[in-house]
Amino acid sequence: MTGKEQGIEQESVESVDVSLEELYQKYRKYSFAIAYRMLGTVTDAEDVVQDCFVELENKPLSDIQNPKAYVAKMTMNRCLNLLNSARKQRETYVGQWLPEPLGESADLPADWLERKDMISYAFLVLLEQLKPIERAVFVLREAFQYDYKEIAELLGKTESNCRQLFSRSRRILSSGEAASEAPSRPHINNSSRVKLLERFTAAFLAYDVTAMLELLAEQPVFVSDGGGKVHTVMRPMVVRKGVLALLTSRRVLTVLRERDVVYTVINGEVQLAFLKDGEVKETLCLRLAPDGEHIQHFYLMVNPDKLGYVHI
């Protein structure tokens, strides 16, 4: 899908004969694509989509001149409201908060994976660095290729303000800790990625310190989300020696070695899932270093409330 197609379509007024069901079928996935990138949780994104179309039930469709833009605006407004309240809720979240992983089997838009860097797990973690309005501008500009005039119309801002918000977002995401969260480079293909995952899995299961050391980037980071539901590493491990010790310990993460380990597509990239009796109990999303030969970040999801959309 081209940038113009992804932005606010410059089209004539949609026929007044178009039904709500037809609009739902046409724009439901588009609304979800925005909401998931904004919120990082599948459940909340789906709720936003449903709320948007429930509102449309009570609105004369003939009043809507550009349905796609209208749906985008409704979706974004609800996401901003949720994010503003979620920031307070996450202050009391037990342990580290990570986005909800989305499996390959999910019902996604046809163009969902055209730009994998814009939906990768690392990208969602990256967006957590931004304030809600900054996130909105960045998502609309980078993921959906809206121009500043269109973004201003959707968010009720001036074009100048939107440009400033985008520039500020880019600065935040290109500096300090946020820079190390950048999504994997697109030149790293799935074949190379799988080979690295195979090496990692073999080293992890064998407690192989030497092999694991060869795989780690100079400054690896390990983050785990248990949400207070499952015992896990509560704080990010950010020292190479500490990450190595964690991954090769015979006491820490032992339960993962008791699972069936499988490769599966999560957020558009091949990642690891850990199964018990055929059910996904944990996922481990790896973000590779720019060279594609070392692992920069480990994102372990053990919170059962966030594993409902990864199916093998």
Report the order of strands and helices: HHHHHHHHHHHEHHEEEE
Structural class: alpha+beta
CATH fold type of the largest domain: Butyryl-CoA Dehydrogenase, subunit A, domain 3
What's the CATH superfamily of the largest domain, by name? Answer: PhyR, sigma-like (SL) domain
Radius of gyration: 21 Å
The spatial strand order of the largest sheet comes to 1-5-4-3-2
Determine the N-to-C terminus distance. 28 Å
What oligomerization state is this entry in? single chain
Point out poorly predicted stretches: 1-16
Count of β-strands: 5
Strand content: 5-15%
The helical percent reads: 40-55%
Please write the CATH class name of the largest domain. Answer: Mainly Alpha
Average pLDDT reading: 86
How does CATH name the architecture of the largest domain?
Up-down Bundle
**What would the principal axes of the Cα set say about the shape?**
elongated
Count of DSSP-assigned helices: 13
Describe the main β-sheet briefly.
5 strands, mixed
Number of structural domains = 2
Pfam family, one: Sigma70_r4_2
Protein name: Sigma-70 family RNA polymerase sigma factor
Subunit structure: Interacts transiently with the RNA polymerase catalytic core formed by RpoA, RpoB, RpoC and RpoZ (2 alpha, 1 beta, 1 beta' and 1 omega subunit) to form the RNA polymerase holoenzyme that can initiate transcription.
InterPro entries: ECF_Sigma-70_Domain, NTF2-like_dom_sf, RNA_pol_sigma-70_dom, RNA_pol_sigma70_r2, RNA_pol_sigma70_r4_t2, RNA_pol_sigma_r2, RNA_pol_sigma_r3/r4-like, WH-like_DNA-bd_sf
